[in-house]
């Protein structure tokens, strides 16, 4: 973080900014082009008006030819109307292409997150980086978004400078007539150079001071990040329905208030940025405004002196003052933009650190043989696993074969490694040691997306979307309604279905639809089981599938389990041993190891075994 709080060099700034720009150009070329054309038009067309108005004034003050005057006025009006029409058209195009720019930027991150190794998502570093990027973006508009804004400013200021310059050149080259006496000094090249130099110095100083004020943000990125993170946690707690009950019971709102209203927070009235605004940043900003006013004074003096001396007519006075001020404005915004770009570079560096997070899992390319008979045999061979950043092995030397079409129950105490075992089976992580084989070949060698098609899993912490019931079950927008209903029925979601007034079209929860139905934990679990069934994969894995169900619904699921599993190889993790009895094989995990395997009858007969202990503890619980 220390590194990010320093200003980047110009070279680094250029590399980072052009990389960001290329991302936008590649993904959204129309957006970039619409900005360019609209900016070109806005920057160059005012000069047409300025030029024509100068001609009108000169005509009025000069020969006063009525026909020529009429023609000039007409031309000025027509060109004004045409320019306005095209501007409106270009502006609309730009607006359409740039709609939802925030969302477009968010999509870049979302895509990265979706294609990231599951293990990377676990790392605190990843979450911290992403949250910092979002805070900087939402708090100060820093990061990718700023690049597109700067690009627009770059184009507009360059074009303004070019346009203004071409209409200002004559200000310096029009000679004062010899008859003007001492005023002819303005014809001397040194005098012209001096005026230009003064203009350049002022033009440069104003934005440089402004950037200096702005650099206090970039230099203190760390404290901004921290404050933003605190705010984004405590500031939005009221929005989160899932904690609304706890907040009320424990009055956690008081705790949030304390954090949100801290005066000495970076953004508080007693904080760092308020101190900067009262001190150096405020001073630089005020000086910058004062220097800008000086420029107008210098231009006016120079133009008026030359006009007074007879170098040009009154029409040209307005033209030169407006054009020179525009050139200065262009240069000024160019310099501000460059400073802003440099301040933004440290924020871009964070963006790219995130986008460059490497996927370390090997991506195989073998295709998976499509088998109607679903004969996919998976075997764990001496598998050990340690979570990234952890200090101990969560799984140790696991050996296991999944028998095709059979029901396997996995039991064990909390934290014994059951869920981790399933995550390895689904290749969310790769083993630290040993290998997992599919039909005799290491699963790392298979194409990952294809390998994933083999599994339907209901994880303990499954999530449903606030979308239609049918979409949730099918994980698709265009789903087969008959199949959805069949899967819901198999999962025992029948009585609950009557609550769904629009059938499979009913929205779950009320996030996006006021008639949405808030399903209970048990109902949600049945929908998740139906989702697993809809996928119809050769393996079905249920991790604590009945934890949220009432005893009646639970009994129903066991009763239907044979129907649910069909000819699939099924894995069933449960704390309720009575529900594992019906499985063909039971494996017992303890401290990351498989300590027992067998049928219920054989395991319960081992009086010194863990299974015996677990079984009798629960049996006692139920019989008492
Ligand atoms: P079970 O499913 O048997 O309750 P888990 O497989 O969920 O057990 O967890 C086994 C162990 O791994 C626990 O000690 C748990 O704290 C640890 N663990 C689980 N997930 C992670 C993770 N993402 N990072 C580090 N440790 C983890």
Give a written overview of the molecule:
The longest helix is centred in the middle third of the chain and has 42 residues, at 314-355. The chain starts with 9 loop residues before the first helix and ends with a helix. It has helices at 10-27, 29-44, 46-61, 66-98, 101-115, 118-122, 124-140, 144-173, 189-219, 221-234, 241-250, 252-260, 272-278, 280-308, 314-355, 418-425, 448-452, 469-474, 481-490, 521-535, 551-565, 600-604, 610-623; strands spanning 378-385, 395-401, 407-412, 433-438, 441-442, 455-458, 539-543, 569-573, 585-590, 593-598. The chain is of the alpha/beta class and 624 residues long. The chain is elongated. The protein has a six-stranded mixed β-sheet with strand order 6-7-8-3-9-10, with helices on both faces. It has a four-stranded antiparallel β-sheet with strand order 2-1-4-5, covered by helices on one side. The protein has two domains: 10-355, Up-down Bundle (ABC transporter transmembrane region fold); 378-619, 3-Layer(aba) Sandwich (Rossmann fold). Residues 122, 387, 390, 394, 412, 414-420 line the site of adenosine-5'-diphosphate.
């Amino acid at each position: 973080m220390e590194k990010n709080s320093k200003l980047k060099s110009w070279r680094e700034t250029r590399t980072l900014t052009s990389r960001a720009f290329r991302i936008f150009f590649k993904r959204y070329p129309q957006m970039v082009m619409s900005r360019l054309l609209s900016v070109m038009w806005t920057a160059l067309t005012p000069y047409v008006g300025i030029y024509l108005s100068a001609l009108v004034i000169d005509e009025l003050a000069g020969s006063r030819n009525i026909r020529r005057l009429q023609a000039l006025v007409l031309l000025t009006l027509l060109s004004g109307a045409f320019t306005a029409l095209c501007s409106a058209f270009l502006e609309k195009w730009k607006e359409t292409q740039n709609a939802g720019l925030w969302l477009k930027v968010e999509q870049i991150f979302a895509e990265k997150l979706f294609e990231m190794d599951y293990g990377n998502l676990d790392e605190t570093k990843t979450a911290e980086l992403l949250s910092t990027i979002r805070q900087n973006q939402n708090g100060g508009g820093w990061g990718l978004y700023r690049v597109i804004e700067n690009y627009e400013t770059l184009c507009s200021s360059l074009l303004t400078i070019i346009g203004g310059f071409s209409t200002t050149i004559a200000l310096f080259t029009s000679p004062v007539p010899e008859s003007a006496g001492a005023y002819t000094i303005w014809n001397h090249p040194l005098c012209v150079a001096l005026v230009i130099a003064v203009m350049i110095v002022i033009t440069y100083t104003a934005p440089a001071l402004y950037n200096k004020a702005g650099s206090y943000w970039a230099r203190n990125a760390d404290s901004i990040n921290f404050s933003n993170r605190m705010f984004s946690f405590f500031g939005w707690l009221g929005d989160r329905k899932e904690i609304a009950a706890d907040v009320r019971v424990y009055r956690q709102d008081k705790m949030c208030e304390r954090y949100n209203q801290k005066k000495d927070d970076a953004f508080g009235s007693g904080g760092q940025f308020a101190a900067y605004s009262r001190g150096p940043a405020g001073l630089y900003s005020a000086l910058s405004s004062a220097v800008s006013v000086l420029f107008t004074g210098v231009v006016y003096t120079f133009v008026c002196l030359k006009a007074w001396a007879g170098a040009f007519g009154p029409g040209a006075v307005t033209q030169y003052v407006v054009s020179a001020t525009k050139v200065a404005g262009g240069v000024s915004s160019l310099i501000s933009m460059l400073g802003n770009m440099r301040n933004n570079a440290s924020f871009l560096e964070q963006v790219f650190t995130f986008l460059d997070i490497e996927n370390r899992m090997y991506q195989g390319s073998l295709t998976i043989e499509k088998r109607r008979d679903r004969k996919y045999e998976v075997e764990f061979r001496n598998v050990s696993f340690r979570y990234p950043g952890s200090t101990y092995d969560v799984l140790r030397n696991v050996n296991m074969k999944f028998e095709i079409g059979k029901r396997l129950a996995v039991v064990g105490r909390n934290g014994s490694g059951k869920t981790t075992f399933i995550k390895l089976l689904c290749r969310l992580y790769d083993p630290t040691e040993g290998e997992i084989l599919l039909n005799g070949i290491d699963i790392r060698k298979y194409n990952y997306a294809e390998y994933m098609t083999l599994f339907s899993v209901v994880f303990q912490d499954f999530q449903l979307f606030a979308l239609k019931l049918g979409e949730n079950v099918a994980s698709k927008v265009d789903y087969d309604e008959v199949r959805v209903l069949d899967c819901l029925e198999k999962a025992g979601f029948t009585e609950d279905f009557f609550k769904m007034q629009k059938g499979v079209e009913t929205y779950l929860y009320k996030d996006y639809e006021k008639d949405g139905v808030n399903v209970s934990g048990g109902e949600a679990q049945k929908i998740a089981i139906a989702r697993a069934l809809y996928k119809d994969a050769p393996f079905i894995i249920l991790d604590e599938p009945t934890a949220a169900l009432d005893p009646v619904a639970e009994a129903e699921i066991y009763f239907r389990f044979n129907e649910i599993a069909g000819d699939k190889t099924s894995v069933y993790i449960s704390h309720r041993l009575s529900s594992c009895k019906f499985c063909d094989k039971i494996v017992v995990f303890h401290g990351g190891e498989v300590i027992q395997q067998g049928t219920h009858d054989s395991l319960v007969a081992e009086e010194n075994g863990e299974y015996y202990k677990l079984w009798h503890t629960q049996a006692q619980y139920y019989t008492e």
